[in-house]
Every structure is written in C-alpha cells, then in structure tokens.
Amino acid sequence: MRVPSTLRFTLLLFLAIAASAPAIAQNQSLETQLEPRGVVSSRSKAVIASELVARLKSIPFTDGDHFQKGDTLLEFDCRRYRAELDAALAEQRAAHLNVRENSALRRHKAVGANELEISRAKFAQAKAAALAIGVRMSQCKILAPFSGRIIEKLVNEFEIPKANEPLLRIIDHRNLEIELIIPSQWLSWLNTNHEFSFIVDETQNAYSAKVHSISAAVDPISQTIRVKGEFLSPPDKVLPGMSGTARFKNASALAQQVPKG
Known about the structure:
About 35% of the residues lie in helices and about 25% in strands. By secondary structure, it is α+β, with helices and mostly antiparallel strands.
C-alpha cells in the first residue's frame, strides 16, 4: 500500500519537529541561564521601634519623604521619664553623701566596716538606676541612622505605642545592590569585580554593574548559587524591589561548554 505524498510529507515534518524539540527546549533553557533574573535591594533598611511607652510628640516625616542621616525621625513626650531621672539623680546624690559621711566616721572608728560597705553598695545601686533611666531617655528622640526615605509610617502623633512596636520602616534608596541566582557552573570563570549589565524592567534601561560578593555555599538541589552585584554609578529612577535581567560578558563561554542536542 503506497502512502500519499501529502501524508508522507506531514509525517516527515512531524518527526522533524519532534526530533528538534529537545534542542529547542535546551536552547531556551540555556538562554534563560545565560541571562539570569535579578532583584534590586537596599543594603541598608530598618524597622524603627522603641522600648519607651510614651506619647508620640512629633513625627516630622511621612511615607515617601526623604531624610538625612541624623535627622529626627520620631520624638516622644518624655516628661515622665525626665521626672524619674531627676528623682534617681537625687537618690544618687544622697547615697554619695552617705558614703562620704561614713568614710569620715570610719576613719575615727565611729562606724563599722560593714556599714561603710553597705552605703557604698547603695550608692552604686542608685547610680545604676539613674544610668538606666538616662539610657531610656536617650530614646526620646530617634535619629536617622542613615540617609534615605520613609517606606511606611506605622503610627501617628499623640498615639502611645506599645514597647518595641514597629513605628517606621525606612530604607536607603541610594545604596543599592542586585541579587542574582546563577548556575553553579559559572564559578569556573565568575569572580568578584566581574562586570555585567543589568536591564531593569521598570525603566527599560541598562546599567553597568559588577559582582561584589558570591555566596559561600551552592544549593545542592538546584545547583545554583547566590550572587550580589553593585551598580558602578548611582542609577536614576531605580528603586528597591525593581527586577531585571543580567547580561554577563563571559556568559558565552559557558554556552560553548553545553553539549548541543
């Protein structure tokens, strides 16, 4: 029985497509590996909290605002703590006077050695109590640890937040890095300071960058490793959380080592 020529051609075309499918899938997989995806993140970010339980007096900044290192981010109404500190300092002075008096009496053997030591211990206790309140007073104003922007204001003025409750989320929007996951085989040629370009999805612009750190361990399941890069110059309009594609100059060397299907 002869097979019609049109049917024969269809069968041959189907077999050719089926035979080339693994190679196409491999090439697509290779292309994905050669241009790994990445996410922009900030090296400096923090959630501001406080041990104080006091009314919030002032919050100068709100969501999205810029601030400079040393600016006051939050200020509490600390009049109660100020009064407690004054009382503790008064007790410290009284305890110190008691030590001086007992020291003079001891020289004349008018008091025992134990009584003098007890007065010294009470002075040390009063001093420590005043110091502890002073440390808490230092949190009445929370200063910015770095320059950046407010991600989210979680409280409002005149509220009394709980101790250690998150108050502000801040981020350094200029000190950025790129987080990538690459095939572990790249370790044969990839090193720190290796330059690459990073195309950000949101801006559609390519930015020059370089590798600044490579993880110390490979994921044994996926055979990948985490790499971090840094921009060679501060990028415009790039924010933490944006994603993109990395293109390495020497990635073609890896492509030549992959067997063809």
